[in-house]
Amino acid sequence: MSKFYINKSYIKSENILSIEDIDALLQEGQFIVKGGNVEVRRLQIGTIMCFIKKYFYKPSYRYLGRCSSAFGEKKSYDCFSKLEIPHPQVILCAEKRVIGKLHWSILATQEIPEATDLVSFLMSNNDHTLRKYIIDKIACMTGHIHNNGFFHGSLRLRNILLTQNTNPFFIDCPKGKYKKTPIGRGFIYDLLSIYKDITRVCTQEESKFFIAKYCAKTGKNIQQWQQKLPQMCYKKFGKMKPLRPLPTTLNTTNK
Ligand SMILES: Nc1ncnc2c1ncn2[C@@H]1O[C@H](COP(=O)(O)OP(=O)(O)OP(=O)(O)O)[C@@H](O)[C@H]1O
Ligand SMILES: [Mg+2]
After folding, report:
1. Statement: residue 81 has pLDDT above 90
2. In the 8-state DSSP scheme, what is residue 86?
3. Is the separation of the CB atoms in 174 and 69 below 8 Å?
4. Above 70 in pLDDT, residue 246?
5. How far is the CA of 131 from the centre of ligand 2 (A)?
6. What is the reported pLDDT for 254?
7. In sequence order, what are the beta bridge partners of 177?
8. Dist. CA 75 → ligand 1 center (Å)
């Protein structure tokens, strides 16, 4: 069965009566990105500026009894709310199924105004104190979700947005899940994903600082993981090329 969800605290549902209405909304949006099976648009719904993501599927029974990516992402955001992890508000969510076969799913989130993703930020900002402050925050956020048995599933720096007042928000989490085992593959996958990105835009000292803060939050042995994580990362991804020439000196301010 097709289904949709509308967050009534944000928009009036009178004008949206069916999932076709939601699909039609998309045509008006400003195009942001198009990937293999996903496109993202920016659009005002009512008074709310939104980012709307539509996932396309080759219709099959693969998703029979399984969550679509849009509802999966909504579930992750619900978990982030419980864990007090900053994230955008879900405005609406819909999935189209025909005789059990999933055709598309849509998720609209409230825009985080004037946000920068962490790759862009860490590529261009040389303020040593601010960089450390943000690395500390994302290590603690990662540790916090892991401590609560939740993994993000797409924990990349491009999927963390920074607000103007330097608050990191987790986004793009359709694969997020709770796991019963404390050290499962999901957690390692998260750690490797984010650590790989960090090594490409941060100094070695900053990468070590991330591991130290993550371990402090999760009660892991810092020395062990300072050795283990770079080795695992090398084994999985090979030698990573830095994305930016890292300055030998970084500025210091009093953040
Ligand atoms: N709520 C939001 N507020 C501000 N910007 C957003 C929001 N949601 C998405 N974006 C912007 O749109 C981009 C694409 O969104 P998102 O990461 O969810 O899609 P994706 O296509 O799955 O990305 P990826 O390339 O990581 O697979 C984000 O990197 C971000 O710049
Ligand atoms: Mg993304």
Report:
1. yes
2. -
3. yes
4. no
5. 21
6. 47
7. 151
8. 17
Residue with the two structure tokens 């930020």: 121
Enter the pTM of the model. 0.94
Structure tokens at 71: 């509802």
Antiparallel, parallel or unpaired: β 90-98 and 101-110 = antiparallel
Q: In 3-state terms, the chain is what percent helix, strand and coil (to 5)?
A: 40, 25, 35
Going by alpha carbons, the residue nearest to atom 10 of ligand 1 is 51
Which atom of ligand 1 sits closest to the CA of residue 172? Answer: 18
User: 99 CA distance to ligand 2 centroid (A)?
Assistant: 30
Q: How confident is the model at residue 238 (pLDDT cuts 50, 70, 90)?
A: very high
Token pair belonging to 181:
């085992």
> Which ligand is the nearest neighbour of the Cα of 111?
1
CA 157 – CA 197 distance, rounded (Å): 6
Determine if ligand 1 sits within 6 Å of the CB of residue 111. yes
For the record, the structure tokens of 99 come out as 């005789």
182 Cα–ligand 2 center, Å: 26
Domains of the chain as residue ranges with CATH: 3-110 (3.30.200), 116-237 (1.10.510.10)
CB 120 within 8 A of CB 132: no
Q: Do residues 67 and 107 make contact, with C-beta atoms less than 8 angstroms apart?
A: no
Across 8-29, average pLDDT: 82
Residue 160 phi, psi dihedral angles, 5° rounding:
-125, 125
Query: For ligand 1, what atom is nearest to the CA of residue 174?
Result: 22
Among 40, 56, 92, 155, which is best to mutate for testing ligand 1, by the most ligand atoms less than 8 A from CB? 40
Q: Within 13 Å of residue 199, how many CA atoms lie on the same side as its CB?
A: 18
Atom of ligand 1 nearest to the CA of 154: 26
Greatest CA span in the chain, whole angstroms? 61
